[in-house]
Design a protein that fits this description.
alpha/beta, Ribosomal Protein L13p, Chain: A, four-stranded parallel beta sheet, 28% helix
């Protein structure tokens, strides 16, 4: 039996995911698997064979339990005493795209390949997106 490896120039599909009412972790796993290409039979870990994902309604993603108030995002400038903590509720007001981006980024490889895969993720807070020309397929998440 011969092992087949994916080519880096494999055709890319566009998917659109509606995050309204979806649980953050379960949604992020599905998005990360599509970005990596794990849903394809030609999946190869060291090749970027994944597809593009457009996430809409990112401001309506759901978290379970008391994570809305208790979960904290930490930002550190590198200077002593300059670490800032922001709750999910405050982040949802200021930059709701960050919540999904941060969760998906944690599930991607921590190298040059993972950073290239993250560029295929497009997140929008509202229900409108500028990627209609790519004819994205609606993904039931």
């Amino acid at each position: 039996m011969k092992t087949t490896l994916a080519k880096p120039d494999a055709p890319k599909q566009w998917y659109v995911v509606d995050a309204a009412g979806q649980t953050l972790g379960r949604l992020s796993v599905k998005i990360a698997n599509i970005l990596r290409g794990r849903h394809k039979p030609i999946y190869t870990p060291h090749i970027d064979a994944g597809d593009f994902v457009v996430v809409i309604n990112a401001d309506q993603v759901k978290l379970t339990g008391k994570k809305e108030t208790d979960k904290q995002y930490m930002f550190y400038t590198g200077w002593m005493g300059n670490e800032r903590y922001t709750s999910v509720a405050a982040m949802r007001e200021k930059k709701p795209e960050f919540i999904i981006e941060h969760a998906v980024k944690g599930m991607m490889p921590r190298n040059k390949l993972g950073r290239a895969m993250m560029k295929k993720l497009k997140i929008y807070a509202g229900s409108e997106h500028p990627h209609e020309a790519q004819q994205p397929v609606t993904l039931e998440a």
